[in-house]
Design a protein that fits this description.
about 60 residues, 2 helices
Length: about 60
């Protein structure tokens, strides 16, 4: 399999959340690691958002 970050990579093409997370988890080698279901990307994005919000709320509660 050829690497994702080749000379024709940065053509400003839109990628889905699932492809972005696949690239993150596969260190840029496989854009379809998590499959083609768009729900997978949304789950990871919402999980990360929830973790950040929970951390901020925890800091705010512990300061008060």
């Amino acid at each position: 399999m050829s690497p994702i970050f080749s000379s024709n990579f940065n053509n400003f093409e839109n990628i889905s959340q699932t492809q972005a997370w696949s690239l993150f988890f596969a260190f840029g080698r496989n854009a379809n690691l998590l499959g083609s279901n768009r729900l997978n990307g949304r789950v990871f994005t919402l999980s990360l958002t929830a973790a950040v919000v929970a951390a901020v709320v925890d800091v705010l509660i512990s300061v008060v």
